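Title: Prediction job returns without error message
Component: structure pipeline
Severity: low
Priority: P3
Assignee: unassigned

Description:
Job completed but the reporter wants confirmation the result is attached to the right record. Sequence as submitted:
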Amino acid sequence: EREMYRLFNEVFRTSSGRKVLNIILDDLHFMRPCSSMEQTALANYAKALITDRLGIKNFLNMTDAIIACGHE
């Protein structure tokens, strides 16, 4: 599990990786409303990608980052 976190973070911390992750999360309806069961399933997978694959568990830091982005 630690190795998986390391690999995913290593890839997605690069400039290109961050752009790709953004595209993936958009494709998975993570940042958009869902209007079908399929879209909801995709959005749930996006949440699993963030928590289970990237190992992000501190949602307060994620909230702070979202708020900071709105002020850039």
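Comment from assignee: result matches the submitted record. The mean pLDDT is 90.
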